[in-house]
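Weekly puzzle thread! Below is a chain. First person to post its structure in token form gets bragging rights.
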Amino acid sequence: MEPDERRRQILSRARALFRERPYGEVSNTEIAAAAGVSRGLLNHYFGTKRELYLAAVTEMLSVPPVPVPEYVAGASVRERVCESVHGWLELLERNQETWLVALGTGGDPELAGIVDEAREHMVDHIIEVVGLGPVARSRPEVRGMLRGFSGLAEATSAEWLKRGRLTRRQAHLFLEEALVRLLEDIIPLVLGDAPR
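Winning reply:
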């Protein structure tokens, strides 16, 4: 196998194992066996289990939530938001264990940095989906409000995946409605473009 292909194979197997069980329950020996490589080769590509885990989390969080094309005039904001929320929840459900660990980054600055970068990408994605590019570039408060929404989305995902207080459908409806209201009512109000 070519080096890039071998690296992708190891990363894919590691992601699958980290999705199934928490980080502490997965060993390098198990990852190497699942990928069909020696531990030495695994270490050659990723160094330590922690580096491999950080690479797996980075890859999982860098996957676009849903392949929504750039905003086009005439498209319904609600339909685009609905599709994006659906894709994001699908991504979280497939990577539940990794996501929940990433949310609890606590005192891990590297993992916190990866999660923060993913939050910024989420905001970029929302801006692209709803066509707010020009406004977001000229008005930083738009980005600030969307970062606030990303915090709401994370807390909602924890209520669904970790605490079981919400079903996936309820989480979807809550996030869809919150984002649509933010886009249609709250952002214009804060920017002074809507009557109070």
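Puzzle host: Confirmed. Bonus trivia for everyone else. The chain has a mean pLDDT of 86.
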